[in-house]
């Protein structure tokens, strides 16, 4: 199947009569940061669990680190690092003990584990809290510790399930710095996230999943170029003065009317705004911004809430 760290062909996962993953192809190259995006129920978590060798595939082919998870799951897991969506630290232990005891699960020598724990405490900026219990730490500190713990075995592949969910902006940016450092050190990463700015910042390539299938694939810049326009003009009108979509279409490549605003997808937002003004359309406010991965995501998966 080639030299990729993760390779899947026609990968499927069923739970009874429900098919959560419906025949996807995935290739993750060594050293890259690869992302899975999609709404709830898209099949991201099921795919990640198959890659992590904790959920067997129903059909299709899958290789992780050149091995078949069905036959060599323990060997693969020994070379993975996993950051779950919810922290599962031992809250009664100290920060340092969480690292050292976890390292012993991999059969690593005590001296090596102690040295590695000190290195990871520095990496996670937790050296000063090394002897503190985990339970009273802030959410950002716990998340940094969870990521540090996932690195105790020097993994070749790091799986991160929504690594910054629930964190404040400062903690998120610090974690981004840590993950970027790992990328520079050659650690391959697979990330799921609901934050589109996070995917743009971290991912070299990504796929958008919806309904168990891949609906788009590429780098963030490629996806924006393919599925959106260079800029978006956001307009807000008084309810009684809001024009119909047909009245706005001449000023943009695509128009989307939302309850609170109109979105005009255009190559030049300022030019569209001038043309609107010349035509006598006077919005309460107008904002020109660049297209983002969120625009792509919503176009591909819709704005309807999925439970």
TrEMBL record:
Pfam families hit by this protein: ABC_tran
Q: Which GO terms describe its molecular function?
A: ATP binding; ATP hydrolysis activity
Tell me where it resides.
Answer: Cell membrane
Does the keyword section mention Translocase? yes
Q: Does the keyword ATP-binding apply?
A: yes
The way it spans or sits in the membrane comes to:
Peripheral membrane protein
Ranges for domain ABC transporter: 6-236
Q: Name one GO biological process term.
A: response to antibiotic
Primary location class: membrane
* Xref: InterPro entries: AAA+_ATPase (IPR003593), ABC_transporter-like_ATP-bd (IPR003439), ABC_transporter-like_CS (IPR017871), ABC_transporter_ATP-binding (IPR050763), P-loop_NTPase (IPR027417)
Can you list the GO cellular component terms from the UniProt entry?
plasma membrane
Keywords (alphabetical) are: Antibiotic resistance, ATP-binding, Cell membrane, Membrane, Nucleotide-binding, Translocase, Transport
* UniProt record similarity statement: Belongs to the ABC transporter superfamily.
Q: What is this protein called?
A: ABC transporter
